[in-house]
Amino acid sequence: MVFSKIIQAGIFIEIPVSPVDTAMQRVSALLEGGIQLIGIDIRHSEGLRIVKESASRFADRLIINADVVLDSDAARKAILAGADVVSTPYLIKDVLTTCNRYGKICIPGALTATEVLKALEWGANLVKLYPADLFGPGLLKAIKSPLPQANLMPSGGVNLDNMATWLRAGACAVVIDGKCGKTDEDDSMHFEEKISMHARQITKCFLDTTTSIQSQH
Q: Pairing state of beta strands 37-41 and 11-15?
């Protein structure tokens, strides 16, 4: 169910590091704009608290990805805090094993066809192409050629301007930096509205592009 929702929603927004209250405002604004998938960097002190609070407040509306998980202990803590998904910046077999043990989806990072193949052999349903901006959409298309069964999700440098290109290259989902909406004192009363507006633009682009791709097949 979680995997099918990821494929259907298609857009993970990375939540910037911030106090929990600010993060909750941002998550609420993203939901208002149609985003159903969020990523939270748990290396930072607030990360697990944001995961836990998001799961508590929005569990029925949101899929939470604990991002930049570097070992099995961090994976377990994230899962117990309420994460639906755990992702790594590169291949870490112990994290995949831990996620499988708890029945959670792990999205390992990879950059080559060999790494993607190994991730699939280790049981990954979805592989994060990271850092995606190092080689661009051409790399994703090249990897999909011998491995059409691989579900690839680019992360790093993906934005509203180039998201359609990634999707047309074969991405099944994307990760987008969520640093839209300033929190400056002069403008803080509008930042949630800006985030929701940006989220609506992103979701519209995703839906328009995927509909266009489907109509061509």
A: parallel
